[in-house]
């Protein structure tokens, strides 16, 4: 990377998430003494974003780039050490940016929570990214930094050998103000993710032709609905990208360090059976309609109706975001002793349980953009601690030996050990 480049450029800065990224970037750039720029199609709109969210930063460069113009993308990425891509859905708009980053030897981070996109990019471009000496790291927001790095944190604190980890997501709003919680763009990504879920089996068979060894005791899913002692309410399987991202990380740790990979199951918790029932009904309708073009058109045309008011094109009100909290609680089972080889079998059942937690505020946008920008900064500051010199990686694979968790804690995204019991 040349010294003349900007430290990072935010592409898609006029979008809903992009504006939050500019706001966070302005704060971090002053704190870390770094230089950033913004990019998109419309100069006037970009100027307005800079004026509103980065007015106290002198001379924020504005770069014009269009996804339909390959040369404009290369010109943009050539001016950045790290490209912060906020332009989704990524299955439609992500690949041209990846190609430009590889061509200009520019690192890329994004907030995609789309497993099909993430894993297809790994399959297609991992070798090219390695040869270019750059890092392509997706899911650097709420999808799926808290879960992925929360598992890394738990493994690091366990002081033994982890066999399995179950995660429980809780979100809640502390204000009585009503309104949407999620912006339309996130909803659109979810629709196409469900519609193309069938792609994953074939994709993973190509990406991972060799299966991991079978580990004992096997962690089994708990079924559609269950109660857990560590998460108050009723819990169901979490349909997001957390588990797929975490398993990519665990495979990397096994292949790179011969570390026993944790088996992972992810859940989310609702407080009441009424909430479970309404979520199940909306979820079933959502899944069924997502499978067909006419259904997707309905979902996209009437987002507020089909989400029960949780989705809007305008996005959440600031007062709702500021009062939205999240926590992910992790239950790790394993052994106090670590065996020499990851495939060695223990003579006894797991004899240790550790409970950890990651928590914070405004998960969908505020915390997401803190995670995203700190991921970019970590690449710049600590590339010597990333275990490979380039490639398409998960956040856990890239940042497990860096100070990213410590930096997140400084920004009020809390990682903590709740309890540790030997049985």
UniProtKB/TrEMBL annotation:
Keyword Membrane on this protein?
yes
- Taxonomically, the superkingdom here is Eukaryota
Keyword annotations for this protein, in alphabetical order, are: Membrane, Transmembrane, Transmembrane helix
Query: A cellular component term (GO) from this record?
Result: lipid droplet
What Gene3D superfamilies does the entry give?
A: NAD(P)-binding Rossmann-like Domain
Q: Does the keyword Transmembrane helix apply?
A: yes
Write out the transmembrane intervals.
Answer: 268-289
Residue span(s) of domain Saccharopine dehydrogenase NADP binding = 9-137
A Gene Ontology biological process in which this protein takes part is: glycolipid biosynthetic process
Family according to the record: Belongs to the saccharopine dehydrogenase family.
What is the name listed in the Swiss-Prot or TrEMBL entry for this protein? Saccharopine dehydrogenase-like oxidoreductase isoform X1
Q: Lineage of this protein's species?
A: Eukaryota, Metazoa, Ecdysozoa, Arthropoda, Hexapoda
The gene for this chain is LOC100746084
């Amino acid at each position: 990377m040349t010294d003349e480049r900007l430290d990072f450029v935010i592409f898609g800065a006029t979008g809903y998430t992009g504006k939050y990224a500019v706001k966070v970037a302005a704060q971090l750039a002053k704190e870390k003494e770094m230089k950033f720029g913004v990019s998109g199609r419309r100069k006037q709109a970009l100027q307005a974003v800079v004026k509103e969210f980065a007015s106290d930063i002198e001379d924020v460069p504005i770069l014009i780039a269009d996804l339909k113009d390959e040369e404009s993308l290369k010109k943009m990425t050539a001016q950045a050490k790290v490209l912060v891509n906020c332009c989704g859905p990524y299955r439609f708009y992500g690949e041209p940016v990846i190609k430009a980053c590889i061509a200009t030897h520019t690192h890329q981070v994004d907030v995609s929570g789309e497993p099909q996109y993430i894993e297809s990019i790994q399959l297609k471009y991992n070798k090219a990214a390695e040869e270019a000496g750059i890092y392509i790291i997706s899911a650097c927001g709420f999808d799926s930094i808290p879960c992925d790095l929360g598992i890394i944190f738990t493994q690091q604190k366990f002081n033994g050998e982890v066999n399995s980890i179950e995660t429980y997501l809780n979100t809640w709003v502390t204000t009585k103000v009503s309104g949407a919680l999620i912006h339309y763009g996130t909803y659109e990504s979810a629709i196409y993710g469900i519609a193309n879920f069938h792609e994953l089996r074939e994709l993973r068979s190509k990406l991972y032709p060799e299966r991991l060894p079978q580990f004992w005791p096997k962690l089994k899913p708990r079924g559609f609905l269950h109660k857990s002692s560590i998460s108050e309410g009723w819990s169901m399987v979490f349909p997001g990208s957390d588990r797929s991202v975490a398993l990519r990380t665990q495979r990397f740790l096994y292949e790179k360090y011969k570390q026993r990979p944790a088996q992972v199951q992810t859940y989310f918790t609702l407080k009441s059976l009424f909430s479970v029932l309404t979520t199940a009904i909306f979820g079933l309708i959502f899944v069924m309609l997502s499978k067909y073009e006419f259904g997707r058109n309905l979902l996209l045309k009437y987002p507020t109706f089909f989400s029960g008011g949780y989705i809007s094109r305008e996005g959440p009100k600031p007062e709702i975001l500021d009062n939205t909290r999240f926590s992910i609680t992790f239950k790790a089972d394993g052994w106090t002793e670590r065996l020499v080889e990851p495939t060695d079998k223990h003579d006894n059942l797991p004899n240790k349980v550790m409970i950890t937690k990651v928590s914070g505020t405004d998960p969908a946008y505020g915390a997401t953009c803190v995670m995203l920008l700190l991921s970019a900064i970590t690449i710049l500051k600590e590339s010597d601690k990333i275990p490979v010199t380039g490639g398409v990686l998960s956040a856990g694979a890239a940042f497990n030996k860096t100070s990213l968790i410590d930096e997140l804690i400084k920004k009020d995204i809390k990682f903590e050990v709740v309890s540790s019991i030997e049985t």
